[in-house]
Amino acid sequence: MRITKLMIKGFGALCDWECLLDPFWTELPFAEGEVDENVNEAIVALLFGFPPHQRPKKQQFVPESGTDKYSASMLIETADGEYLIGRHFTRETAEIFRLQEQQIFSLSPLVLMDLLYKEIGLLNPLDFEVVSVYRSNQLFLDQNAPLVREHIQKLILNPKLNEIMVKTVNEEKMKQNREELAELDTLLLKLEQWETDWQRLTAEEQKLAAYESFLSQDGEDLLALSARDYTAATLETSFYERQLREEAETRRILEQEVDTLRRKIAAFDPDFYSSETEQKVNRLLQKRAELNQLLQKEEVALEQLGRKGFRLRLGQKEKEAEIEQRIGSLLQRLDQLREAIRLILKNKKPEEFLQEKALLEHYRSDLTRLDRPSLLKENDRVPQEELARARQKEEKLRQERERLLALTGQEEFETVHAKVKKLGMIKKERMTIEAGLSRFLNAVDKATLEEARDYLLEEKRQRETQIKAEENAVMVDDPDLCDLFTLYQDAGRMLSVLTEEEDLGLMPYLDGNRLRFKVITTEGPRPVEEVSFPFPHPEVLDLAFRLALAKAVGSKGQPMLLFDDFSSWLTPQMKEDLRQVLLEWFSEGQIIFRVK
Questions:
Q1: Which ranges in the chain are annotated with CATH 3.40.50.300?
Q2: When comparing pLDDT for 307 and 121, which is higher?
Q3: What integer pLDDT is reported at residue 557 of this predicted model?
Q4: Rounded-to-10 torsion of CA 203, 208, 213, 214
Q5: 146-158+478-595 fold
Q6: What's this model's pTM, rounded to 2 decimal places?
């Protein structure tokens, strides 16, 4: 039986709430304002209602919206088809409908009990809560459930169970022996394969012995190696030849450029284009600019006097005369400056002189940068030495390659190359096998393959004897006893998952009429208080047993497990291990996890 859709009109903090459930594993977060595990409680109440002893719980989940909305329904899928189950908790009435071919058929409420028994194998709500409902604060085993009382009777009728459980304390040793036996079989098979391969490779190597001269000590193909090295040497020679050519061309260009600059510089008169002449010209030009500026000011002043009225001008004659006298003096001095510049520059314009002087300095600067010994000297000594070395190496490799090619005789080069390549691969494979055999012989401390094989066969015989003795020690013939034994083996496995302790077992004992448990360790059965490692949660023994019991009961149908958020002590690895075991055990059922 699998729930496909859950619809809650009113149940605790949930109001008009619904969701679709996955066929196998569903994780439902707590709804906003939800305190108790309302969803899982609603599922239990839908299936079984509220028995008389649960009247307080019935009142606990009355919704705030009132008793009229205190109801829920669900769609379920079964082997017989799809059903709709509804229950009004206030009126304590249940309804069930069958959905078939887009039609709804009303059925008797008694059909629900038949479905529960057929699908999950349970009718009693106490039994259902033992194997299916895991509340965060109620993980202890309910001793009043008929399923638990029946289990206690089975324990009383099968007193040999604990004896058998004790004998399985060393079951890990049996597992280890089986693993070692499988490893021994693998080693024997590998040893045989190694020997067969080594003999095959040795025979093939002998057939190709004539081509040993084409292999290096490391098993490399000398034909391919010589071709590769000769090509590399040829490229290296070409590199140094090109480098020398480029350096010679660079020196030629530099020398040509230096010669050109020297001719250009020689075309200038050094006495005429001297720094002293440049300084004199610059001083005279600066003085000329100053006189021109003074002349401009005097001309402006004279113009302003000419614009005044007639009467005012009668009083300004003397000023006009003074200005004209100063202008005449300035013009005379300017004529003297122009004459001085003309004589110094030999009738050449000052601007042309300064441009030519700047060009001369540019030529001299370029010549200073280029005319350096480090650029023009013969600095190719190192490349020439490297070129000589490369040519010598190239010649040596060429001779070696010709020698190898001569050894091929009349046989085609490609044929020889293929056989040499095959011989190299055979040698490498044989050496790998020999290295593996050597490591193996050292590991087993044997000198020869025969001794190693005899050692492995003896070890295999001992493991088979031990496994047979251990299997006989735990052999169970009685079906009821076998079922109990399997149940407690599963409980021990679950206990190991919930505690992260390996190889634990769970053994039952009766305390009066109550079912209790001990932990089986490698030291034997121990009460919880005497176990050397701390338990993460006081109810973990009951939880492990309940999950194992759920697996045993679920084998008769499709189990349903309702988990509340009880996993606060579980590490991420423990949660993943628990999930894997649940996936394995309850693959035919449905699991609903409530998470916060």
A1: 2-120, 146-158+478-595
A2: 121
A3: 67
A4: -120
A5: Rossmann fold (3.40.50)
A6: 0.52
Strand (E) or helix (H) holding 444 = helix 413-444
Count the neighbouring beta carbons within 10 Å of the beta carbon of residue 463.
Answer: 20
Pairwise CA distance, residues 324 & 437, whole Å: 123
What is the Cα–Cα distance from 528 to 517, expressed in whole angstroms?
A: 8
Q: How confident is the model at residue 73 (pLDDT cuts 50, 70, 90)?
A: very high
462-466 average pLDDT score: 77
Q: Which residues contact 322 (CB under 8 A, 6 or more apart)?
A: none
Sequence-distant (≥ 6) Cβ neighbours of residue 541 within 8 angstroms: 495, 506, 517, 519, 528, 535
In angstroms, how far is the first alpha carbon of the chain from the final one? Answer: 26
- Residue 68 CA to its chain's centroid (Å): 55
Query: Looking at beta carbons, which pairs linking 119-123 to residues 24 or more positions away fall under 8 Å?
Result: 119/1, 119/78, 119/79, 119/557, 119/558, 120/1, 120/554, 120/557, 120/558, 120/559, 120/560, 121/553, 121/554, 121/556, 121/557, 122/147, 122/553
Report the amino acid identity of residue 1: M
What number is the average pLDDT over the span 248-262?
Answer: 87
Predicted pLDDT of residue 448: 84
The one-character DSSP state at 69 is G
Q: What share of the chain is helix, strand, coil (3-state, %, to 5)?
A: 65, 15, 20
The average confidence (pLDDT) of the chain is: 83
Please report the sign of the dihedral spanned by the C-alpha atoms of residue 200, residue 205, residue 206, residue 208. positive
What single DSSP character describes residue 208? Answer: T
Instruction: Please state, as a whole number, how many other Cβ atoms lie within 10 Å of the Cβ of residue 350.
Output: 17
Secondary structure in 3-state letters for 259-312: HHHHHHHHCCCCCCCCHHHHHHHHHHHHHHHHHHHHHHHHHHHHHHHHCCCHHH
| Structural contact between residues 83 and 96, judged by C-beta atoms closer than 8 angstroms | yes
CATH number of 2-120: 3.40.50.300
- Rounded to whole angstroms, the Cα distance separating 319 from 353 reads 41
Q: Are 223 and 400 in contact (CB under 8 A)?
A: no
pLDDT at 202: 85
A 10 A CB-CB count for 119 gives 21
Q: What are the residues facing 99 on neighbouring strands?
A: 82, 104
Query: What is the rounded CA–CA span in Å between residue 584 and residue 554?
Result: 12
Dump pLDDT digits (tens) for 401-460: 777 777 777 677 677 778 778 877 887 888 888 888 888 888 778 888 888 888 888 888
Cα 315–321–326 angle (5° rounding)?
140
- Which residues 6+ apart lie within 8 Å of 20 measured at CB? 4, 5
